[in-house]
């Protein structure tokens, strides 16, 4: 009897060792980041069973295994027009002499490359930068009420609260008027609306779908890969994107904690790029295979002068396009970089790019929250500060409330507003979208706002930071080991 028991124990141990070896080979083969590879290997070796479960739950590389391959289906006439327009836009980019485009031409070309984001630079856009929900929501609701043909909405967080219900009522009213209303929500981030609010929308004729429906908690990788985009498109001519979700906490007239965020309204042709992202997402998550025709991509002229490039990135893209855009913008900066992010968990290349810029004489300013919404993530972020401070990067902690904006400005020539944080999750795991704005007026406006925000922030003193307690340094380094999973 005892011999049989030992035999089974040995068989189980051998099987487990074999499983660890196979999982290790899969990690090495499948994981792009060296840091992540080492992290997952440590987990599966030193955390029996749980480490392997963690990897298969959260670690599968969906950049290699495309989460979706939905492409736009265009009617033939529109396809020809768009292809001709694409060639004209590429020629236009090459011929432009504006300083904003000349200095950042390599960035624009990188993102326009068919091997990366395939993002065209669209000229003549009107841009309105919006601070916080109290500026965004009244304007958003007003523009949605004007819709004649379609309203396309995509959000990571949509709450069943005052703001969420105000928007719901407007969408229902427009649907009853005969306007096509399509709504994509993230099933994890918008879980509070799954039952009541979604049913109300559907009953009124709104087409609503979760981006990646979570059916079983066992399928937790669907939680890991989140649709973090915030996009609204109205009649193919007006669009909104940025960091603000649909929730009362983003409106400081309804929120006790001051919430500092940035969004933008665009009127002009680059709306078509956001439309393309939305419809690709829609055809993936809905039961409707939308064939795109002229009403969704209308011919339009704008009185604006901003050149804008919209970059989409996610586990479905071959490369981390938004990360590449940030790094290239940093590398092209000559004298000033202004970064705002609620979460700073960089990869090695981003961290080193900022250090190189600072050591080269570029003034690098980084604004982060004084208190994050996760002590664990905040401590992990702090492990990167000492290297930055030694290089001369100025780091500020926003104390008025929570800063949630995802923006950057370089040399008062280029600005960016988007949904992506400066962290590994945004660059590798989430579906994100960002706008690059090649316009000195907008860049100067956002730079002024940045320095206004610094009045409510405290700069980190490099000497004091280096003298922080040993136990704190150790905690930062230990938690930093988990940064690939944050």
Give the fraction of residues assigned to helices: 40-55%
Radius of gyration: 24 Å
Q: What structural category characterises the helix and strand content?
A: alpha/beta
pLDDT average, as an integer? Answer: 86
Q: What kind of sheet is the major sheet?
A: 15 strands, mixed
* Apparent shape: globular
Give a count of the beta strands, DSSP E runs of length 2 or more: 21
pLDDT < 50 runs, ≥5 residues: none
Strand content: 15-25%
Trace the largest sheet across and list its strands: 5-4-3-6-7-9-2-11-20-18-17-12-14-15-21
State the helix count: 19
First-residue to last-residue Cα separation:
48 Å
Descriptive report:
The protein has 486 residues and is of the alpha/beta class. 45% of the residues lie in helices and 20% in strands. The strands form 4 sheets. It has a 15-stranded mixed beta sheet with strand order 5-4-3-6-7-9-2-11-20-18-17-12-14-15-21, sandwiched between helices. A two-stranded parallel ribbon has the order 1-10. Helix 2 (34-46) runs antiparallel to helix 3, helix 6 (105-112) runs antiparallel to helix 12 (321-332) and helix 7 packs parallel to helix 8. It is globular.
How are the elements arranged and paired?
Elements: H1 2-30, H2 34-46, H3 50-59, E1 73-74, H4 76-95, H5 99-103, H6 105-112, E2 121-131, H7 132-145, E3 150-155, H8 162-176, E4 180-185, H9 196-203, E5 207-210, H10 221-224, E6 231-234, E7 238-242, E8 259-260, E9 262-267, H11 271-285, E10 291-292, E11 306-313, H12 321-332, E12 336-340, E13 344-345, H13 348-359, E14 363-369, H14 375-382, H15 385-391, E15 394-398, E16 402-403, E17 407-410, E18 414-418, E19 422-423, H16 424-429, E20 432-438, H17 440-454, E21 457-459, H18 462-466, H19 470-480
